[in-house]
């Protein structure tokens, strides 16, 4: 019912008749002000609706598709708000969104495990002979860490691809991509603990993260 509400709300927003709901009204204002593309908003809703059953991803590509349609779609909208229409920026946004999706899946694993749920791609788990029960038991076996390593490596690869467009992406787009600082921070921390996804240090906040964000912004990098 919630997904149906938002589908109808988005349709109504683009017909200039938003419902009297605070978020819907602000979204309508943003759509009018920045001429936001309806397709990106609908992709976010449709993809979330497809994943309401909360099953594990069958493979890494399925996770990446989910990230593309949710995280990357949000970045495309952010670029539109910044007035950026650039193919290189879109390519960077696509890779950053996928990296965000993979890192979010990794970071949430201890939380989901505490509720006896595992969403990590089944193909990678099977490749290393790891079961969902291994993650529920918070196993620190090498094959469990190998699963985490493979996923972290894929996220890192997406960041690398996104940064390969650095010289071609308009500088105005960089603020939309500063989340790469937080993504890289997590990937470095998980490498330092030898890909033990349940290590307590991964649950601690990095108090220097705001400074890192400021420095990266000042350097005009992402």
Automatic annotation (TrEMBL):
Transmembrane domains' residue ranges: none
Keyword annotations of the record: Membrane, Mitochondrion, Mitochondrion inner membrane, Transit peptide
Subcellular location: Mitochondrion inner membrane
Biological processes per GO annotation: mitochondrial respiratory chain complex I assembly
Function according to Swiss-Prot or TrEMBL: Involved in the assembly of mitochondrial NADH:ubiquinone oxidoreductase complex (complex I) at early stages. May play a role in the biogenesis of complex I subunit MT-ND1.
Similarity remark: Belongs to the NDUFAF6 family.
Full protein name: NADH dehydrogenase (ubiquinone) complex I, assembly factor 6
Organism: Physeter macrocephalus (Sperm whale)
Native organism taxonomy: Eukaryota, Metazoa, Chordata, Craniata, Vertebrata
């Amino acid at each position: 019912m919630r997904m149906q509400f938002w589908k109808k709300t988005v349709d109504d927003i683009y017909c200039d008749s938003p419902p009297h709901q605070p978020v819907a009204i602000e979204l309508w204002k943003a759509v009018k002000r920045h001429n936001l593309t309806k397709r990106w908003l609908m992709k976010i809703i449709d993809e979330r609706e497809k994943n309401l059953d909360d099953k594990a991803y069958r493979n890494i590509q399925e996770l990446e598709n989910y990230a593309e349609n949710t995280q990357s779609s949000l970045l495309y909208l952010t670029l539109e708000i910044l007035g950026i229409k650039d193919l290189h920026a879109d390519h960077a946004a696509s890779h950053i969104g996928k990296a965000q999706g993979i890192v979010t899946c990794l970071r949430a694993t201890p939380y989901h495990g505490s509720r006896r749920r595992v969403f990590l791609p089944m193909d990678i788990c099977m490749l290393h002979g790891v079961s969902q029960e291994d993650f529920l038991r918070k196993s620190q076996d090498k094959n469990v860490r190998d699963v985490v390593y493979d996923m972290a490596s894929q996220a890192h690869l997406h960041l690398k691809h996104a940064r390969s467009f650095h010289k071609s992406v308009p500088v105005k787009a960089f603020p939309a991509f500063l989340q790469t600082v937080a993504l890289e921070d997590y990937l470095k921390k998980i490498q330092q603990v030898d890909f033990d996804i349940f290590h307590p240090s991964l649950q601690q906040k990095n108090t220097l993260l705001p400074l890192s964000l400021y420095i990266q912004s000042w350097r005009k990098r992402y």
